[in-house]
Amino acid sequence: MVLEMKRALGELRSGSAQGYRRLYDATYEEVYCRSLLIIQKEDQVLEYMKDFYKDLFGSLDEAYETSDTERWFLHRFYQKLRKHYHRLLEKQEKAAETGGVKTLAELPNAFPLLHRIMLTMSFKDDFSAAEISAIYGLAEDKIQTELEKLEKLLPSITEGQPESVGAYLGSWKVLLLGASRQITGAGSDGWVDSVYADAAKAAGIPAEPSPVKSGDDQFEYFVADPEPEPEKPKKKVVPIVREEPDEEEEDEDEDAYDEDEDDEDEYDEDEDEDEDDDRYDWDMEDDGRKMIILGIVLAVIIVAIIGIAAFRILGSDKDSERDRIQSEQEEEDSGNKLIVKGGEDEGSEAPEEDPEPVEAPEETPGETPEEAEALVMRVNGNTINVRSDTNTQSDILTKVKKDEKVEVLGDPAEEWVQIRCIEQNNEEGYMMSQYLSNIE
What we know:
The protein is an alpha+beta fold.
């Protein structure tokens, strides 16, 4: 959320009106979750969100000067909620509900509006009692006392909850985290565009330009002219100039005539070579490729022959060595049989004593510790990135889709949790815990 907010503020500072929509898209889920946990009425939540974003779009100059954008945004949210407190309190009293609590998101409804605000500020957004006192004007010690009472009341509030949400009932912090996941997974997005349109119109923001339809593509396509192939230089045929014989040489023998015929044959051979040079380039490439393939086949055959010969040579050497060792052993055995002990009858051989068998120690099978049951949860976001570290700047290892099951290797109460993609390739990485839900 923080990174997208900074990008949106950067666009607004550069004068792009698209930054308002980018800022809204980066924050509306967080605003909706907190508002529903506190107000508990969706129609009142949407009305409050329109008024909140209307004021937010008009006070973005403060965001440019702050170093902690997320903290500034949460302060703006709770300050605006204070202005709506009495109006919301009146509607809450008129529309008071009766009946038991059914979901984690409805558990805070057991407390008054002010206590729901303190619950969300303290256990979800880590506001101290002093910060809550500065925004709502209440005594700091009174706020601290009320928060301690709310912690003690948690066991009685969570009685009768199903086992599927038992992991979220240990503390208010974890419970509100699970409630936010339920809200994000079960909420409808039909109101998203209408809330932004009403808030932007009230703040005087110009409407977004309509997107270009696929049939109105203004891109000009062209086909590049093919490059002309370079002309091959033609070889010049140098004619052989024959010297006319002198009158004195007319009476020479027929050897001179034969030499002229040899010259004509050489001229014809040169023409044949020129015709061979005019073959297409791909014919030459095919010939070269065939020669390479033939060379590879011959090399493989040679290597195979050498390997077989070496194997046979080594095998024969091993056999001869084994025979030599065996013969030496037999000679030693025969020599040992001739040794006799003194004091006994000569010629009698010493009896060989059988060695006592050594009992092998009995092996006791080790007890294998019982492996802890793995926690498997369901992805509640559409397409969630699985990253290599616990921040949005780290590398994306893979993506998981909605309703895909993953194994949780860390604490689901943390903002980032280590998971294993058991429905893909068991790759491990990190994702935000708000996009995980228990399997019902």
